[in-house]
Amino acid sequence: xxxxxxxxxxxxxxxxxxxxxxxxxxxxxxxxxxxxxxxxxxxxxxxxxxxxxxxxxxxxxxxxxxxxxxxxxxxxxxxxxxxxxxxxxxxxxxxxxxxxxxxxxxxxxxxxxxxxxxxxxxxxxxxxxxxxxxxxxxxxxxxxxxxxxxxxxxxxxxxxxxxxxxxxxxxxxxxxxxxxxxxxxxxxxxxxxxxxxxxxxxxxxxxxxxxxxxxxxxxxxxxxxxxxxxxxxxxxxxxxxxxxxxxxxxxxxxxxxxxxxxxxxxxxxxxxxxxxxxxxxxxxxxxxxxxxxxxxxxxxxxxxxxxxxxxxxxxxxxxxxxxxxxxxxxxxxxxxxxxxxxxx
Length: 344
Ligand SMILES: *Cc1c(COP(=O)(O)O)cnc(C)c1O
What we know:
Elements: H1 4-7, H2 10-13, H3 21-24, H4 54-64, E1 71-74, H5 77-88, E2 95-100, H6 105-112, E3 116-121, H7 130-135, E4 141-147, H8 159-168, E5 172-176, E6 198-203, E7 216-219, H9 222-231, H10 239-249, H11 252-274, E8 279-282, E9 289-294, H12 297-306, E10 312-313, E11 323-327, H13 331-342
Parallel strand pairs: 2-3, 2-4, 4-5, 5-6
Antiparallel strand pairs: 1-7, 6-7, 8-9, 9-11, 10-11
Bound molecules: pyridoxal-5'-phosphate (PLP).
Pyridoxal-5'-phosphate binds at residues 76-78, 103, 147, 151, 176, 178, 203, 205-206, 211, 216.
Protein name: Histidinol-phosphate aminotransferase
EC number: 2.6.1.9
Domain Aminotransferase class I/classII large: 40-341
């Protein structure tokens, strides 16, 4: 790995961050707060939230098996994705490499930040070869984007190829594990101590059932987390979100229960799809959705839409000709989809 200073945008490396009132005073014993120009009324919403979300991170550390200083929290994973560009890539000069197809935000954020985006096509089984990713890199490549289980294909990427990529690349590798709760594979976030150039992303939007509160996580070496914290908005995770997340984390068994039901429904849906005349093929999945190759995805998409059922049409995505991406819903929702397709 190149030294972190070399991988970081020079102005960011040199940045002296904004110091908020609540940064400078973070003890617990004070009882009068006249430091932040807050209104004394309308408790508790009158107070600025903890800028570093210490209570939430302490609980997350236990649940996720990652030390609290290795956790960054943001306004969805999307904030961490954008921060990776703003911290480590120089607009107009640097580039990033990513698997193709994958989650659309990596490219959108590259475009917003004026960073060259180099997609590397997966093979027919939606797998990567480390050497192909590395071949696409040059001295201006700062980041490699991986997503496992991958969206929209649904499959886990081969672990050996991921590890080879991390070990052989001299920049940062970001592995988005938004869907790892649905997979049997050991999460890579548990290995961040081994790889100083690895950033793993998680989210509250999928298995945790909290897309509305906008809370995403990045796990990495403390030096990387410190750079993210320096650049983020001071109060990037609001008080209501921190409170709701703590409530969700108090009931992890609820989440385990949801995951079990979703996985059962997933196999039921895949079996049912395989029997549909309109379905040519269902791809293997390790996530809470699956990709299905249809006989004319666009027509079926429009037909479902006219019946009030929305799925994701991926037909214009590389390697996904005529594919629909189907999220596993409740039993009732899944049955409505099947009933509509049986009548198609
Ligand atoms: C849904 C999804 C996310 C979640 O993003 P949030 O901003 O946390 O809601 C992240 N990565 C991938 C690959 C996803 O599919």
